[in-house]
């Protein structure tokens, strides 16, 4: 069902890249393969989808989740991500190792001081981050990835959520993590995009009906804010955005077969630069504790 913002539907396929109608569930990947390729239903391997929320630096916990899944031989077949989940999802879909993903956040963080700009519509210029991404995505293409990937971004002029799944990759990643008031909007083909989390911080929609088992990891658990956390206009505005994103996302948690939402991540801020290893470990251990449940769900789906 569409939610109308004037004449703009909430989920608007990106008309400039390949997109899918997300309003109606699609047959699962394995079901479509069985129908189209004559695969024996007794031998078809169930498919695993992974949803990664936004969360700023807390998104490093997504790397821990992916590491735990890989160790158990449960690498996802499809990934959908928003904001920092888009960054980690793209790195994982590109086949990068855990060490490489952690190195990205340690050395290529878009929050470095040289990214600051005063004259544009944000204090960090997303255009200055492009070179950092090219090292990790030299082909700059969704089609070059090892795993099918869906990234969300908000087309701000028409209040539409766009889901990128093909074509140039780096602009889609930047669009998905262009947090308002912090990052300048990302311009793609004349359209201005900001963080996908503004409309959808937990994008289960692209994976509905596409996988047999859906695992969700939400990296922005809501905690009680201290007065010191609300010491400025940007801090208050980001808090309000975070509260709205949490409650809109929570309504979709039940759609996941296994849902992971580590409360311990609430101790860290969006722009934490000192606790990367601890954040990673929280994601890793939280996922490890759910691996048996994920395997049981996959077995039950066959």
Q: What would you note in describing this structure?
A:
The protein has 302 residues and is of the alpha/beta class. The chain has nine helices and ten strands. Strands 3, 4, 5, 6, 7, 8, 9 and 10 form an eight-stranded mixed beta sheet that branches. α2 runs parallel beside α3, α2 (60-71) packs antiparallel against α4 and α2 packs across α8 (276-288).
Whole-number radius of gyration? 18 Å
Largest sheet data:
8 strands, mixed
Helix content: 25-40%
User: How many E strands?
Assistant: 10
Mean pLDDT: 82
Report how far apart the termini are. 30 Å
- What percentage of the residues does DSSP assign to strands (E)? 5-15%
Question: In DSSP terms, counting alpha (H) and pi (I) runs of 4 or more, how many helices?
Answer: 9
**Overall form:** globular
Structural class: alpha/beta
Low-confidence stretches: 1-42, 111-119
> What is the N-to-C order of secondary-structure elements (H for helix, E for strand)?
EEHEHEHHHEEHEEEHEHH
